[in-house]
Amino acid sequence: MRLSRSLIPTLKEIPAEAQIVSHRLMLRAGMVRQTASGIYAWLPAGLRVLQKISAIVRQEQNAAGVQELLMPTIQSADLWRESGRYDVYGKEMLRITDRHERELLYGPTNEEMITALVRDSVKTYRDLPQSLYHIQWKFRDEGRPRFGVLRGREFLMKDAYSFDLDYEGAVLSYRRMMLAYMRTFQRLGVRAIPMVADTGPIGGDLSHEFHVLAPTGESQVFYDSAFEDLDLNSANLDYENPDDMAAFFQRATNIYAATDEKHDSEAWAKIPADRKREGRGIEVGQIFYFGPKYSQAMGFSLAGPDGSKIIPEMGSYGIGVSRLVGAIIEASHDDAGIIWPDAVAPFSVALLNLKPGDAACDAMCEDIYRQFGDDILYDDRSERAGAKFAEADLMGHPWQIIVGPRGAAAGMVELKRRASGERFELPRAAALAKLQPGAA
Ligand code: ATP
Ligand code: MG
Q: Which residue in 28, 86, 132, 427 has the fewest CB atoms around it within 10 Å?
């Protein structure tokens, strides 16, 4: 994309309405604009991040055998009356009446809808297990929308739902999803620790929240630093092998990690002092086993092989896709701006032409720009060099290719790595080779 023709309205001033760094940086880097309280328009650079995160989430869900579908944002109130949640959900639900006086709502979550869809689609116990997900906008009329996209009212969520014939199957689905989440967050370039979480009125111990550590997080979290050394991703784990999933789950949950709601001071006391970590976390995902709660209430049952009645066991699994954009920035920035992990940067590379109009600079930049495809932002504006450097640092592109007149005449460019600040003077071809996927 050419910056001269892009809608990336960066700001020099620090926006007064933004209390935390990710919100400030997202506004300053021209990624989003608020259009109503807790509701954001995603401008081109912001949308690219959202799309890159969504793509990784999607790939890892698919790899775990979860099927993508797309459910609507608008749901009927009657569906929620079936589960009994219409009246108890409270003010967070945005309720709508259509021209025929029918009651609708903007979905805050989709347990009811998916339960009805699967109930009405499967015929025999042989059709189970099923697990399905979508990546769709949600609306929750939060009492205090704040911190930009971290707590919005309209936000993008990946929500998945599993249906199994028995408890054992449901636990397997849960473990698979936990592994898929660990892999997803690792690929996104962010550390998210699974913490034992409150299961609410349903009880049981099968819920985990995934927290990204950041001082601005809303939850108090406690964990054993052994988590930092745990590598759960490299092992050759097969989603289809229940023993693999059990071994993985055992390792992932053996190490102490809990939010304050589930903090166990006795277990905590047993951890060596030098391994205790306490801080703030941002919840970027939650996985939940809740058994037959919705299937039972909504009349979803199947005849088993021996004719007995089976009420499917369910779980639900969310990832806050739009919240992740802010959470990643909270975890990865400096005074100059955002430091994007490679996988989610709006553009992997910024190409800075320090002297547009100079024949050698223009020729070299046009050439690099053409070669690179879609993942490069070409700063072709006639701004001073200092302003270009500052904006590239603010926007946080993992790499900058800097082309000045002296270097261009000699066939050289400067390459800058945003995260480390390292700079390399290289012949053009060597610089581009360094940027090929995997070479970084
Ligand atoms: P919170 O405790 O932060 O209000 P929640 O536990 O109510 O979140 P879930 O129902 O678990 O949220 O939703 C799944 C995921 O969706 C959360 O882990 C979070 O990442 C994201 N999410 C929830 N509410 C919001 C919101 N208001 N804005 C942005 N993301 C959200
Ligand atoms: Mg939650």
A: 427
Q: Which CATH superfamily is domain 349-434 in?
A: Anticodon-binding domain (3.40.50.800)
The least confident of 46-60, 90-104, 200-214, 421-435 is 200-214
CA atoms of 78 and 76, how far apart (whole Å): 5
Q: Each residue of 53-75: b (16+ CB within 10 Å) or e?
A: bbebbbebbeebebeeeebeeeb
pTM: 0.96
pLDDT band of residue 372 (cuts 50, 70, 90) is: confident
CA of 285, nearest ligand number: 1
Quick one: pLDDT at residue 231?
74
Per-domain residue ranges of the chain: 3-338, 349-434
283 Cα: distance to centroid of ligand 2 (angstroms): 7
Residue whose Cα lies nearest atom 28 of ligand 1: it is: 151
Q: Tell me the torsion sign for CA atoms 140, 146, 151, 156.
A: positive
Q: Where do the DSSP E strands lie in 140-275?
A: 154-164, 192-196, 207-213, 219-224, 257-259
CATH fold of 3-338 reads: BirA Bifunctional Protein; domain 2 (3.30.930)
